[in-house]
Design goal:
Two copies of one chain form a homodimer.
Chain A lengths: L7 H16 L6 H8 L3 H8 L2 H20 L8 H4 L4 H20 L4 H12 L4 H24 L5 H20 L1 H8 L6 H22 L14
Helix pairs in contact in A: 1-2, 1-4, 1-7, 3-4, 6-8, 6-9, 6-11, 8-9, 9-11
Chain A binds a DNA duplex (30 and 30 nucleotides) through helix 3.
Chain lengths: ~230, ~230
DNA sequence: GCATCGATGAAACAAGTGTTTTAATCGAAC
DNA sequence: GTTCGATTAAAACACTTGTTTCATCGATGC
């Protein structure tokens, strides 16, 4: 290895992750990345081929990291096993999943992942199909497994919609973060805000799930005026 | 007026709206805009001062248009009046609002608005505070008025959270559109998909609302195993 | 000790960027 | 018909972009 510091590729990746997440692909120049990594512009091309190649690696690394984080407490039991769990345990499991997602998406240390995800929705790249297949789809399938056990009479389509409704509520706070922070007048989400938010999402979703999973009728069931 | 066509500024704005929405601010050059508008690069600077100025005007025009669309069936009644409405009517009102938002955000003709909103969340500009104050905040306050009447015993904070949960579900389909379309294996949201989605969001939210608005207890109320 | 090869630094390259300048052109008012 | 102000077109400007080139450095193998 030449002069410089020991791991140029790693420092480049870290710098690129941060800058791509914060400013986006187009607004980030490889000179910015190189400067922040304490490396030369040519180093980027040497190790990653091109700016786009570097971006793809950043995306891959970031999603792999998150996947690892969210599956740290072991694999999800099979549907057969899960179906025997008491309702309380299923809700606790769902709560842990939601809390984990909140942590990954909204806790400052891992801000990059949410930002990159948002950017990929804004300007999809070749990496999106891979991310969907390897990360989003299994994640949703697992959540669906829990939801299906919580509402055994619901159709597969209904379960899918419920899963989307649950995930939507968490993603909302990440995707609308700039606007929501302005609305609540805070510089960032406080730990307390996130905790209360998580609790609300679970409560709201359990209620919604009970309502849509009840039957197939279209009209909302009258339940007595409040 | 010189040669060219009659309304250069309008054509520039239309071209810019389309391109900014589709490619984003950085990825769109004023030469692209000029070419698409059949105008010269200098015309943009003459009428809008700068690229950023043009972008701000695009944003303003787009949000004004949507604001006009969503308030077309008159102003929302006051909370006092709304409080006397039967539950069924309140739900119908909420449904119309959600359906209107779905139409604005996800119907092809008005795709630009959702895209620009998403981009503003990715890379907030000086226009965001204005958009939040003049568009998002009133929109949420109005929805909160309906929700508050549907759950009269809920605290203001709970109402806010419910409003966010409802809006979140609609925004989800817009913000995650590239990924969700890949997941469901469709090139675009079909009319039927959107209708079923809207119905689900309402049902799910009514259930969630009933659950969170019931009391202040933290635990979810046991309702008998299903 | 010398050649080799992976890795790096500095500079140059061609292309594209937003912006400005300058001149030409138009319609309408006098 | 001329003049004037508003609008457009073409070119140039200064700058940044991603990428490439080439010389150099450092360790490793013989």
């Amino acid at each position: 290895m030449a002069s410089g510091s020991p791991q140029t590729p790693g420092r480049l990746l870290a710098a690129a992750t941060d800058l791509f997440a914060r400013r986006g692909f187009h607004a980030t120049s490889i000179r910015d990345i190189a400067e922040r990594a304490g490396a030369n512009v040519a180093a980027g091309h040497y190790h990653y081929g091109s700016k786009r190649g570097l971006y793809v690696q950043v995306l891959r690394a970031q999603f792999a990291l998150v996947r690892e984080l969210t599956t740290r407490d072991g694999a999800l039991p099979s549907k057969r096993v899960l179906a025997r769990w008491p309702r309380r345990e299923l809700i606790a499991l769902l709560t842990r999943r939601v809390a984990g997602t909140v942590e990954v998406l909204l806790d400052p240390p891992s801000q990059a992942h949410g930002a990159l995800m948002l950017r990929e929705m804004c300007d999809p790249t070749d990496a999106l199909p891979i991310i969907v297949d390897e990360f989003i789809r299994p994640q949703m399938k697992e959540t669906a497994r829990i939801v299906a056990c919580l509402a055994p009479h619901a159709s597969a389509r209904t379960v899918e919609q419920v899963v989307r409704s649950i995930i939507a509520q968490v993603l909302f706070y990440r995707f609308t973060m700039p606007a929501t922070l302005l609305l609540i007048g805070a510089p960032r989400y406080s730990r307390r805000f996130l905790n209360e938010m998580t609790a609300h999402v679970i409560r709201f979703s359990i209620g919604g799930l009970a309502h849509v999973g009840r039957g197939r009728r279209r009209r909302d069931s009258p339940r007595g005026r409040r």
